[in-house]
Structures are given as structure tokens and as C-alpha cells.
Amino acid sequence: MRTMTQFGNDLYTGKTSFPFIGRRRLWFILAAVLVLASVLVPFVKPVQFSIEFTGGSQFTITGLDEPDQLLATEAVQSVVPTASTKVTTIGSDAVRVQTDQLQPEETQQVTAALAEIYEVPTAEVTSSFIGPSWGDSVTRQSLWGLAIFLALTFLILALYFRTWKMSAAAVIGVVDVLVITVGVYALAGFPISPAAVIGFLTILSYSLYDTTVVFDKIRENTLEDGEISARTFGESVNLAVNQTLIRSINTTIVAILPTGAILFIGSIWLGAQTLTDISLSIFVGTIVAAYSTLFVAAPMYSLLREGEAGIKASDERVLAARERAGVPA
Predict the structure, then answer these.
(1) Whole-structure pTM value
(2) Which of 49, 83, 85, 98 is 20 to 30 A (C-alpha) from 208?
(3) Please, are residues 312 and 185 in contact by the beta-carbon 8 Å criterion?
(4) Measuring CA to CA, how many Å separate 49 from each of 99, 191, 258?
(5) 90 in helix, strand or coil?
(6) Residues paired with residue 127 on neighbouring β-strands, in sequence order
């Protein structure tokens, strides 16, 4: 049985090779299915947004011996039966309650009801209000941040790699990561919050980093081959992806270990729910980013370049030489 070192060496030399480029049609179909499924998620399970986006009232009760969430719901329902309530445990002695927008009188009554049901002084219950205009501002700034990120990504990669096609392939991969990650996040039933948006932008940066490393190796292989290459352009790209495969796997594992610990141990096991949104978005996004670089971005770049006259002529020359030498296709 081969060791990991031997396996990595075989991938680097081409002795072992996964068909990332040869079976790109299959990978593109899989990517299209995942993206379509992610787009359809809101129609099956509507996407929820946190109070920072929708606006509403928020109450925080501190100094609790037992932060029972059901008590908070009962207190709010006793004052405003029609109010939509979301209760989150903060640490081991506090509870955060978020509701629809309440009137000043209702806010005072809910504050008193929460203090009474939790048997704490009214001073232990703080209330705040987030208006819909502030939520609209957060939404607008998030969309602007995403648009600026994608625009700068395209421009910087085009300048660095000196080809817009590599930049376009990278942006397609980044969008693929974003759509699938948001789809999985929404399917899990977590509301999109500013922390989740930060997580999405973080994994976009990670995806860009992973793609840049792989593309740099692709550029190195294709430039070194030149006109004397014994490989087609697609084969050179495939070799580069295989040569960086172990690095991509190792980097992904190292990245998901801390976020996985925060998500499963901190958020789910210990109950630190305030970390759930950002840890889930980064955990899922890191895995999707590794997949997208290997199965979407790199094959897409090869597809965009193979139609060029110079590359097509080089590939035909390589295939003709193999045919003359009797090498099977």
C-alpha cells in the first residue's frame, strides 16, 4: 500500500492522475445541479434574515441561573401574541430575545414580563431597537461589498496572470462557491446575519487564494511546455491540478478543523449559539471552495483556452505525433 508521500509523488510526476479536465463535462453537470439546487432552496425553505436586516426589537436578559429559552417565548407571547420571536442563549447566564418591531408601550411591557418570568430585576433586562432603514443600509453595504470584491478579483487576477480567461474562470469558481454555500446555509435553517455575511466574504477570499495557487502552477506548466511539449494543453492543466491536489487537501483539512471545532463543539455541544452562523458559513464554504477550484475553475480555464488557434495547433501536433508513434489515445 502506498504511503501519502508516495501518492503525492505519483500525482506530481503524472504516474497517478485524476481526470479533472478529461471528465470536465461530468463535473460541469454536477456543478450545475448543485447551483440549481441551491437556487431552488429558497422556494422550498424561505431564507431567513436576522434582525439586523429586517429590523425589530431586541431584549437581553443577564444574570440568569438557568437560561431557559421557552420562558422568554412565553413572556413575549403573553404581551404580544402575534409577535415572531427568536431566542438565543448567550454563554451560561444570558438570553437574547429578538422580535418584530414593537411599540414603546409594548417594549416596556415585554421588559417587565421578562424580568418577572426570569425572576430578575428590571435592570437585568436591556432593550434595543433596530429600524428597517438600518437593515436596508446593512443589506446595501453587503451587496456593494460583494460587487466590489468580485470586480477587484477579476481585475487583479487579469493583471497578475496576464489573461482575462484565467480571471474569468476564477470568478466563475468564486460565484459557484458563494451560491452553493448560501444554499446549504439556508437549507440548514440558519438566518443570514452580518456575521454570516462576514463568513461568506471570508470563504470567498479563501477560494480565491486556493484558486490562485492552482492557477499559478497551471501557468508554470503551460509556459514551460511551450512548443516542444509532449502534452496537450488540457493535459498540462490536468497535471498542474494533480500536482497541487495534496496541498489543496491538506490546506482544506487544516482550515476546517478549527471552524469545525467551533461549529460542532462550541455551537452545538456547548451551546455557544452566537458563533453558529459564522462558523457554519466558513466550514461549508471552505469545503465547497476546495471542490470548486479543482472541478470548476481549472476545467473552465482549460475550456476557455483550448479554442485558441495557437493552442489548438499545438494540441493537433502532439496528437499527430502520438498517432505516428503508435501511442494509443
Answers:
(1) 0.81
(2) 49
(3) no
(4) 12, 5, 26
(5) strand
(6) 59
